[in-house]
């Protein structure tokens, strides 16, 4: 799979970026993907969308929300450790990580107004009910790779409440179908093709409806610790023809590195964990940040 990804130097988050991320719960990385990369990944997503359309895999409104992004679209595998943004992931989570949840989203213009539905949520599912701390632990982070022009509100923008990752509960309606105002402080994120949004899974967010003539296209990739179960489909990846084209780090991120024992996933064997080796070779293991310590 030949891609236009440039072999850039890996960089850790700066202190200023870490402070902003801790304050707001997200960072916007403008122009992370080149124009050629946007064209390449957009074509791959368009192909998946066309296939879903032909097989009846689209929602009634013509949208696509497809889980397991790379397994369903191998061209997207190079996004998993893209050098322009991967440093944000391992700077926060360290080297014992994998992709637990990813999805391709395509949302064309809605033909008519949809009934109200309260979309606001934190990622993590049952983690938000079964972990009792306040605030909840970060647990995972997400990269959103934008492949279409969402530079104006009303194009299906991701809407967030800055700083809400430190809040366990958001005031909302008694049931999701009851009309309710937007949370106080909510903002629509405006992005250009090639921009990437890095956010804390606890950040309260919602997709807004798209009533514009621009089709919203974005790939979300969520990362967590390897001792947390993967939600994506990964069981037979090593048997697929494109598997041998992946790097050891990409294979780790897709959940297939290790001897199958819990100890490996728990990070007890750093020397046989590819991302640890890469960070060590590049001199990026920061002893001041616990997840980067062997």
Automatic annotation (TrEMBL):
Pfam families: PhyH. The keyword Oxidoreductase applies. The keyword Metal-binding does not apply. GO terms for molecular function: 2-oxoglutarate-dependent dioxygenase activity; iron ion binding. It comes from the Bacteria. Keywords: Dioxygenase, Oxidoreductase. InterPro entries: Phytyl_CoA_dOase-like. PANTHER family: ECTOINE DIOXYGENASE, PHYTANOYL-COA DIOXYGENASE DOMAIN CONTAINING 1. This is Ectoine hydroxylase-related dioxygenase (Phytanoyl-CoA dioxygenase family).
